[in-house]
Amino acid sequence: MPVTDPDRRTEARWARELESMLGPGQVLATPSARKAYDCDAYTIDKSKPSVVVLPETTEQVRDVVRWCNRNQVPYTPRGAGTGLSGGALAAMGGVLISTKRMTRILEVDLPNRCLRAQAGAVNKRISESVAHAGLHFAPDPSSQTVSTLGGNIAENSGGPHTLKYGVTVQHVLALTMVDVDGEIVQVGSKVPGGPGLDLLGVLIGSEGTMGVVTEAWVRLTPNPAKVETVLASFATVRDATQTVADIIAAGTIPAALEMMDEGIMKAVSLAFGLVYPEGAKALLLIECDGDPDAVAGEMRTVLDICAKHGAMDVAVAADEAERQKLWTARKKGIGAMGRIAPTIVTQDGVIPRSKLPEMLDRISEVAARRGIGIANIFHAGDGNLHPCMYFDDRDPAQVEAAVAAGEEILEVCLDLGGSLSGEHGIGVEKIGLMERMFGREGLDLMMDVRRIFNDGDLCNPCKILPNQKGCVEHMRRWRGAAW
Ligand SMILES: Cc1cc2nc3c(=O)[nH]c(=O)nc-3n(C[C@H](O)[C@H](O)[C@H](O)COP(=O)(O)OP(=O)(O)OC[C@H]3O[C@@H](n4cnc5c(N)ncnc54)[C@H](O)[C@@H]3O)c2cc1C
Question: Does this model's pTM top 0.70?
Answer without folding.
Answer: yes
